[in-house]
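From the methods appendix. Each design record in this collection lists the tokenized structure first, followed by the designed amino acid sequence. Records were kept in a plain field format so they could be parsed without special tools. The example shown here is representative of the layout used throughout.

RECORD:
FOLD TOKENS (229 positions):
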């Protein structure tokens, strides 16, 4: 069965691995005729002495089948934090207790909605595109270094590629360490919900829809208080 299937394979793209293991003078990569793909050269991975070869298949991989999502992120800074603190300090909190009385849950929801409203009106927002294969520790510095490495490779600047790869290696190490410390900090602060959200983003697990009917009712009750403030 195996010999019959291997008979349909033929020599395709050259590779160094075949020569190392088989000892043949002409290195190759065996592929089926219907699976032969277009190839393109990419910069070497890490400190490797040979380039990467990208094979583009006819079928669409998962990263192409899933759409690119757009997320809105907050841009925090010291000035923004001071403005938010000033906004909360001048707030008349007695208005909340007068309208809700002993309704602790309604009071908590109203205060949370008010703080969120202040946050959305003060903190700057930015829309970013998220691809299905994005890693949570990838930041703009790493993307800039990857683009520099590609430009150096296209210009056939081998020394430039090595220099950028050295910077990229250090930046990746720092980014992964920072993300690790962020997750560990949430565990130490008992922020289990944020930890699970981070794990779901890493594993790609889809979150189920939430029942927001109860929250909408409380938001309607809080609207008069927010309008007074």
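DESIGN:
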């Amino acid at each position: 069965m195996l010999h019959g299937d291997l008979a349909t394979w033929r020599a395709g793209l050259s590779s160094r691995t075949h020569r190392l293991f088989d000892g043949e003078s002409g290195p190759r990569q065996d592929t089926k005729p219907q699976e032969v793909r277009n190839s393109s050269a990419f910069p070497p991975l890490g400190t490797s002495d040979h380039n990467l070869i990208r094979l583009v298949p006819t079928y669409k991989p998962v990263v192409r089948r899933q759409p690119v999502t757009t997320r809105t992120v907050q841009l925090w800074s010291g000035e923004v934090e001071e403005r938010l603190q000033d906004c909360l300090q001048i707030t008349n909190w007695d208005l909340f207790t007068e309208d809700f009385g002993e309704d602790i849950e309604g009071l908590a929801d109203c205060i949370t909605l008010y703080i969120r409203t202040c946050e959305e009106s003060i903190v700057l927002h930015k829309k970013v595109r998220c691809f299905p294969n994005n890693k949570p520790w990838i930041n703009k510095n790493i993307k800039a270094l990857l683009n520099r490495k590609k430009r150096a490779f296209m210009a056939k600047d081998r020394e430039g590629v090595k220099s950028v790869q050295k910077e990229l290696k250090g930046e990746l190490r720092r980014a992964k360490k920072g993300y690790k410390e962020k997750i560990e900090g949430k565990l130490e602060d008992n922020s289990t919900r944020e930890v699970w959200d981070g794990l779901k983003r890493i594993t790609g697990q889809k979150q189920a829809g939430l029942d927001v009917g109860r929250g909408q009712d409380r938001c309607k009750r809080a609207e008069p208080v927010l309008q007074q403030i």
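APPENDIX NOTE: The mean pLDDT is 73.
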